[in-house]
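Following up on my earlier thread - several people asked me to post the actual chain instead of describing it. Fair enough. Here it is, all 424 residues.
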Amino acid sequence: MFSAYLRKIPAYILLTMFLMPCVSAQEMTAISARLTIPDGTPIKLRLAESVSSAHAHVGDLLDFIVVRDVNLGGLTVIPAGTMARGSVTGVKGRRILGIGGKVSLKLDSVELVNGDRVGLRASKEVKGGSRTKLMAAAMIATALIFLPATPVFLLTRGHTSTVVKSTEITAQIDGATSVLSAGLLHSRESSSQLDEMMDYLPPRVFNGEGREGDMVNLVFVAQAEDLQEAFKRAGWVKTDKWNPVFVWHLLRHRTNDTRVPMARFYLFGRVQDYSYALPDPDAIVSRRHHLRIWKTDYTIDGTPIWTGAATHDVAIEIAKRGHLINHRIDPAVDAERDFIGANLTDTSSVSRQEYLHCADPVFQAQTASGETYHSDSRILLLDLHPGTPARTGVPREPLTVVRATALPIAVPAESFQRDLMSPR
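Reply from S.P.:
Thanks for posting it. Predicted structure:
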């Protein structure tokens, strides 16, 4: 009798009754497969191009590069290399009374791996250097000589504000958002932080105007105190900063001042953390080995990774760009890179050496002052551990480095120094 009853029910109703559990199951699966990206999830980005208060306008669009995967629940929701959008929100040119320019930026949105866009929260403001103190000093000096001319210095303008390429900004997801887990790639748990850094390491440093200059040719793995001790043991000196102490040292030591300051260069949007020099005893001011070092936020087994840009000053000359005088460098910058490796190894500070390859190789380029240099594009990694001398021929456990080649047996530092000190 029940079967007879079923025969009286329309076929489309029976079909609906059978499909409803299937549809509900699919909906439940879709709901359970959604991941929620929490509000405030951090995203590490770098500015793709320099921005100057001399040329920027409010509303200009900006590109930022995501330099670290954003992972959630073992899956990557925003892969490194994704472009994020931003814009210029404020611009002020350099003004009289020694006031510098100003540029304000903000992040707008970034694309998820599934193509959806989510809003971002982040902003940055960079002010150009002030010349107010210099203006005041000039006015006082002029007043002692010819008072009526003093007001002219009120027209002194400050420095242009420049947000240099590679400036780092950490943004946050603006509001919780969800994404389907279907099709998402599993996060790269086995990838080392050194590999991540090398994938997006800027190949060259920048001057304050955003012009590219020296190449990044050194990587150090060391605690801050070990890094400083290694250079101290090898006879290097920290150069002075641009402050009144520098003037006092220069007046006191004159041409024997080994701590003459270096120009301020930028990487990751920051000036160098350390500046080291190894002067030539016969020409302390004009000839010196030197490098600038920046700390990154990457580590290997908890040990910080640092990057460096090294060149060899061989003479003082009239600069091609922007300054009255400048150091001329040896265009074979690889020789300076290898000299530093040999010099530190010779003092038993280096436990491991390897050549790395940057994702954006540099074979020929110009310094910020317009000098041409050339390279094989390799970057030398030096692992610094005190009390563990590097012994040739003794096998060591290799670092987790994807793009690396073995470093030849270190040449004694003395032979490098004889070659590099010869007249050119």
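Residues 36-180 form a domain with the Lipocalin fold (CATH 2.40.128). That should answer part of your original question.
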